[in-house]
């Protein structure tokens, strides 16, 4: 029997317990996780009790699972691929009305279509001047803070927060509370109960805005949702919740971690400075290379389903690991290298299938403008502390850096 066949047999007889998630480096997925790509769809035992499910590390296999309607999100997730309870476990325990990420069609379709028109490529193109103004304002704030300033606090977090607040009609003055609750929701080191409490507080805050929007509507998404006769006010708040959290958490971490990665890859950064036309491709490559949603996307099989000759039983959990799928050597040459000239199209940083991120075009615009203006404004941008002192968000559902002190 071949070595590969022996490895497969051993895996079938004794599936591994949990998904490796502790990194040896700042940007690369765990070595043990990448070693699992020899069998890109494999059985795995889930926490807390060792029940058997599946782990997907391959790009093609991941797309198949995420596009297959037999794999659901509108279920109660009770098991986690790591000893830290997955964010899907906590949210599915107490899903707010309207939080369409945890609904399946047709209910998912009904709710999602209420916001898809806002995030079209044309609408995002129209929004570019305002995003550029916000980026300029935050670059000025970063400069005013002086050398040693935290790029996360002065730039990476405020830019997407200001944009999504303006789009939703959420007062930016309330940002400290919603940013704190949002971060607590995604903190995997906190208990499920603590995370649910933070989600409930944030949902309650948005609920409190709906009657005011209905009584005195503005030119914003929450006003439109509050006035929609087909949407209940609690659904309006739930839709706003997912947009608010996703609208600033993922992009903020991409702006900060992406800047860190560019500073740590000076040849790539230098190339981007002399070839600014590479920016759209550079954003796609950074999305692929960093894959900040690093704990994977979970699904539950609604019925027995066969994927690539493997039978996944009804009720079993399946985790598609985006950070591994986006480094699949069958999809990308030299996948472990950051290459800003690469054609990274087809990556799954935004997921895949009907639940693919509804705000992905907004995120792309924010990153293209944000990175371009940042490197233009600070031609000597550099870290203010040794790179090993940068605190990483290893125990968060969205990977990144907690702070990023910079000089220029």
UniProtKB/TrEMBL annotation:
Mitochondrion among the record's keywords? no
Name the UniProt key words of this record, in alphabetical order.
Answer: Heme, Iron, Metal-binding, Monooxygenase, Oxidoreductase
GO: which molecular function terms?
heme binding; iron ion binding; monooxygenase activity; oxidoreductase activity, acting on paired donors, with incorporation or reduction of molecular oxygen
Query: Biased composition, Acidic residues: where in the chain?
Result: 1-11
Positions of region (Disordered):
1-26
Spell out the PANTHER family in the cross-references: CYTOCHROME P450 YJIB-RELATED, P450, PUTATIVE (EUROFUNG)-RELATED
Query: Which family, according to the similarity comment?
Result: Belongs to the cytochrome P450 family.
**Know the name of this protein?**
Cytochrome P450
The organism named in the record is: Glycomyces algeriensis
Traced from the root, the source organism's taxonomic lineage reads: Bacteria, Bacillati, Actinomycetota, Actinomycetes, Glycomycetales
